[in-house]
């Protein structure tokens, strides 16, 4: 047994002692990776041997072997409590991998295929006058569309959502607050196509406005608002009540307390929440198809006429179904992912910059 | 500028729960009054009725009157915001504003109220308040560092500086030392002794020795049982309360035979 025990504390007299009840044999540090490698090898062997064609099955077999192997080994060497700990740890690791592998492969695939036609000309040209079967053309009109539609949607949804959250957390008591919370919950569950249909029937069919980026923005705002409300609410609830009381006890009115103490304390989290909500709507396709209609040419005016947008462009290029349009679809997907990534980074930057300061 | 507080027939509720009942007492200006009593007897609740902070709690409600010199805090048309400017408060846990520097924390009471004060004047106010709170020497070289970076005792003195910067007439302190080590506690007790030259001070404490050391008068609160409202048992000169109280329950509590 002593060959698997390691890392014992360096006690001066290491002479044979009775085994302390406080010290138990531990698996060495390299045991988990070793088990993982073995499990992976065995998984591949079983997969090949049994002729399983799906790599995913290989992976799952290896994962199962890893979890069982760690549990068995720990149960033999370290005892039952440690074995349960190892079981939970290895399960968490496996779940982490299962979550991360598709994500990485997605990023890999998109970068690999998208970078083929992604260059300055792709970013600065529209599809005007380009046949879908031809290579060339670009995504500029879609970028303009996405920026404008998402920008307007944010300009509508962020203030409304922010104020709603402030009402719910700081003022809302009784019936009205419950009703508002209920509707926010309902709105969270509205599918994007339904939001699109709602604006379509209301704005385009009833009020007889034409297709426009703005119509799409309204649908996006409907989708964004509940997300902003929810995340802002959570952030405001995190602000300790003591700070509000400290401010009120100084004779500061409630509205100033909210504006000058509560919001600055929570602003990092709120900005992150808003940015994530923006990222979420930037990828919406359904309402755009219904309300913005799609376009091949640059239209800088979001209030008049059809526009394109990145998700719509991807959909359209993919539907065209030929080599050149596939390339463009992947490149546009890469642009969209980059856009969302940049937003996330900005949010993190703001959160770090604005975080309450603790240093000496 | 210190003012006399005169409380008459005061009840305070949390929703339907009556937390304190029929409290009447007088607090003299430029004196320190200590509140003692077992946990849950309503000391904090009563303290918070003295600057209308009680009604900040959802369901919080007050009956009765609190006279500040000759003005009833609960009279019609009284603005709780102005009351709180006159009657300052220091809380049990130090709560400096985490987004603000030491300087900004002290200036907060004035700045958050939208006061336009010249930089030089503000510097003077901040220095005076920090000196008043015995903190100036320790922080004068790092006024622009975050207030949250100070030690617990320093943070509490920062909160006291913040409270006295708006020049209140009464200062309420709810167990201001309970989260602090003995040395910081001593620093704050010394400070209380100095502050009473200018302010009327009311302090809640669980520490008998502290009450005996810092206060001129002591009020003992008690409650008949769980769920019953807390009541004022007696208020008297501190020396008398600790040597020869007129009520048996007070003596039991002070000598540790109870609570
Ligand atoms: N926020 C609150 N909501 C409801 N009841 C409360 C609240 N705070 C205190 N109470 C009740 O009021 C009574 C007095 O509490 P408190 O004033 O905090 O006592 P003390 O400060 O003397 O320990 C207690 O019974 C307590 O349960
Ligand atoms: Mg208390």
From TrEMBL, chain B:
The record's listing under Pfam families reads: ABC_tran (PF00005)
Q: What is the lineage of its organism?
A: Bacteria, Bacillati, Actinomycetota, Actinomycetes, Kitasatosporales
Keyword annotations from UniProtKB, A to Z = ATP-binding, Nucleotide-binding, Translocase, Transport
Cross-referenced InterPro entries:
AAA+_ATPase (IPR003593), ABC_transporter-like_ATP-bd (IPR003439), ABC_transporter-like_CS (IPR017871), P-loop_NTPase (IPR027417), PstB-like (IPR005670)
One Gene Ontology term of the molecular function aspect:
ATP binding
Source domain of life is Bacteria
Q: What is the gene name?
A: pstB
Is the keyword NADP assigned to this protein? no
Q: Which CDD domains match?
A: ABC_PstB_phosphate_transporter (cd03260)
Taking every annotated instance into account, which residue ranges of this chain make up the domain ABC transporter? 5-248
This one is known as Phosphate ABC transporter ATP-binding protein PstB
């Amino acid at each position: 047994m002593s060959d698997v025990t390691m890392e014992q504390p360096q006690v001066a007299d290491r002479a044979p002692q009775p085994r302390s009840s406080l010290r138990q044999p531990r698996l060495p540090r390299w045991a988990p990776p070793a088990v993982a490698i073995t499990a992976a090898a065995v998984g591949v062997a079983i997969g090949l041997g049994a002729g399983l064609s799906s790599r995913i099955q290989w992976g799952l077999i290896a994962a199962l072997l890893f979890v069982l192997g760690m549990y068995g080994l720990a149960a033999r060497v370290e005892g039952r409590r440690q074995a349960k700990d190892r079981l939970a740890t290895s399960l968490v690791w496996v779940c982490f991998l299962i979550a991360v592998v598709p994500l990485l492969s997605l990023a890999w695939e998109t970068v690999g295929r998208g970078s083929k036609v992604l260059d300055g000309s792709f970013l600065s040209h529209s599809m005007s006058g380009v046949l879908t079967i031809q290579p060339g053309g670009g995504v500029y009109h879609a970028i303009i569309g996405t920026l404008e539609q998402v920008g307007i949607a944010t300009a509508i949804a962020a203030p409304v959502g922010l104020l709603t959250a402030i009402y719910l957390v700081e003022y809302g008591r009784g019936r009205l607050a419950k009703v508002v919370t209920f509707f926010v919950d309902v709105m969270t569950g509205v599918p994007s196509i339904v939001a699109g249909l709602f604006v379509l029937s209301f704005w385009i069919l009833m009020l007889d406005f034409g297709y426009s980026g703005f119509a799409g923005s309204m649908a996006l705002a409907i989708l964004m608002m509940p997300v902003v409300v929810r995340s802002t609410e959570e952030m405001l609830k995190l602000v300790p009540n003591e700070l509000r009381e400290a401010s009120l006890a100084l004779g500061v009115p409630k509205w100033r307390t909210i504006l000058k103490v509560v919001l600055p304390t929570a602003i990092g989290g709120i900005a992150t929440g808003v940015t994530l909500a923006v990222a979420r709507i930037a990828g919406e396709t359904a309402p755009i198809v219904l309300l913005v209609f799609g376009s091949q040419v640059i239209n800088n005016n979001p209030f008049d006429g059809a526009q394109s947008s990145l998700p719509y462009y991807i959909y359209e290029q993919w539907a065209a179904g030929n080599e050149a349009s596939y390339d463009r679809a992947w490149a546009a997907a890469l642009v969209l992912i980059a856009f969302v990534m940049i937003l996330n980074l900005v949010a993190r930057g703001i959160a770090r910059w604005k975080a309450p300061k603790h240093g000496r | 500028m210190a003012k006399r507080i005169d409380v008459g027939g005061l009840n305070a509720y949390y929703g339907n729960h009556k937390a304190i009942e029929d409290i009447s007492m007088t607090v003299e200006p430029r004196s320190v009054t200590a509140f003692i009593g077992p946990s849950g007897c309503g000391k904090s609740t009563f303290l918070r009725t003295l600057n209308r902070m009680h009604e900040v709690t959802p369901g919080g409600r007050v009956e009765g009157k609190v006279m500040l010199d000759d003005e009833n805090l609960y009279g019609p048309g009284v603005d709780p915001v102005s009351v709180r400017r006159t009657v300052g408060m220091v809380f049990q846990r130090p709560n400096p504003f985490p987004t603000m520097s030491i300087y900004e924390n002290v200036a907060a009471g004035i700045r958050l109220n939208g006061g336009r004060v010249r930089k030089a004047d503000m510097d003077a106010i901040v220095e005076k308040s920090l000196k008043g709170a015995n903190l100036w020497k320790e922080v004068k070289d790092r006024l622009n560092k975050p207030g949250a970076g100070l030690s617990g005792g320093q943070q509490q003195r920062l909160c006291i500086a913040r409270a006295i910067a708006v020049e209140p007439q009464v200062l309420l302190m709810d167990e201001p030392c309970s989260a602090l080590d003995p040395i910081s506690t001593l620093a704050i007790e010394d400070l209380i002794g100095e502050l009473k030259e200018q302010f009327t001070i009311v302090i809640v404490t669980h520490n008998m020795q502290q009450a005996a050391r810092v206060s001129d008068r002591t009020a003992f609160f008690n409650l008949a049982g769980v769920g019953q409202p807390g009541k004022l048992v007696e208020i008297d000169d501190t020396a008398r309360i600790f040597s020869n109280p007129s009520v048996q329950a007070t003596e039991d509590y002070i000598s540790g035979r109870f609570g």
